[in-house]
Structures are given as structure tokens and as C-alpha cells.
Amino acid sequence: MRAHQGFARTLYALSKPGAGLAGPLTTRRGLGPVMIAALFLETLSRLLLPFAGGTPVQAAAVLGLSQALVGLTVPLWVVSSVSLVQALTPEHLLGRVNSATRFVGYAVAPPAALGAGIVGDLIGLRPTLFAAGVIAALAFLYLLLSPVRRYRHPAT
Predict the structure, then answer these.
(1) Would you say the pTM of this structure is higher than 0.90?
(2) Disulfide check for 80: which of 14, 34, 52, 115 has CB 3.0–4.6 Å away?
(3) Cα 10 from chain centroid (whole Å)
(4) 3-150 domain in CATH 1.20.1530.20?
(5) What tens-digit pLDDT sequence spans the chain (156 residues)?
(6) Three-class secondary structure of residue 30 per DSSP
């Protein structure tokens, strides 16, 4: 393994605390604010990727930092968004809502990946990665301006 690969993997491993932070952060700050923070970190991660370049070590550092942010983001997003859905969905509909959500997520991913690959081939990887960052920023702004930001904890 080359040094720059080890460096990137080390930075990625540093992202593991996200799983441990999800519960305490949602308890302290609330589900909506944690979802917004997670999407903000996701946006930063995506906006970093087009700038991965230079020497192999520099590129690995940018890539590693991006992946560390994703590693922190995923557990924060999953815990808070699933908790929000469970809190707002009537119990008798939870199975249907969960399966529909998963179906849409899994059904959209392959065509989106194919489309991103085609766009990357047509306009280049860096512009495509930057476009993904802009899309993430728009999603962040949408969530930030939505009523989700006011949602703290489910009623018990």
C-alpha cells in the first residue's frame, strides 16, 4: 500500500465517531437541526472533491477529508431522518412508508449513477463533481428553509 492510500484510509477511519455521535446529538440538538448539519457536511464533502489534485499526497488528503465528512454525515443523517419518519408516521403505516422510502432511494441510485457517468464523460469529472456539490447545496438550502429545522424531538 502506498503512503497516500494509507493517509486517505486513516482520514476515513477518523470519521467513525459519527455513529457514536448520532444519538447524543439528536437528543441534545434535535432531529431537524442534526439532519441539516449532516446535509451541510455532505455538501462540504461534495464540494471538496473537484479540488482533489496536485501530488498524490495532496489528492489523497482532499479525498480523505471528503470521505471523513461522508463517514460522519451518513450515521447522523440516517439516525435523524429515520427517527423523524418514525415519529411522524402513524404506526400502522410505518412498514409501508419505510418500504416506499427505501424503494425510491434504491430505484433512483442506479440511473442517477449512470447519468452522472455519462455527464462526467461528456463534460469531464471535475465539472460533474462540482455539479454534484451544487445539487447538494441546493438540497441543503431546501432543508434549511423547510419546517424540519424546527423539529426537535418526537412526542412521547
Answers:
(1) no
(2) 34
(3) 19
(4) no
(5) 566 666 656 655 655 677 778 888 888 888 889 999 999 999 999 999 999 989 988 888 898 888 888 888 888 888 888 888 888 899 999 999 999 999 998 999 999 999 999 999 999 999 999 999 999 999 999 999 999 888 887 665
(6) coil
